[in-house]
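Record 1 of the preview.
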Amino acid sequence: METVRCNREKCESYSCYTHIDNIGYICDDCEIEFKDHLYREHKNLSTNEDIVKELKIFMETQKSEFPIEDLKIEEFFNENRV
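->
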């Protein structure tokens, strides 16, 4: 498998195993941070369209580290593994 850079703003990771249509590649660290963002903001996204909309906004933010898991979001990313 080739190494692919994360499409998140200012993320330097080349460990990307998830691709989301109309967004691009996302690394594990950014995926975890996105899940934490949703948890902290009390966002309950019930459809894939809602997740993609929020993820597009998130991908324009700068990377940091806040690990936590959310099972519904975990399902979404597992379905999009390449």
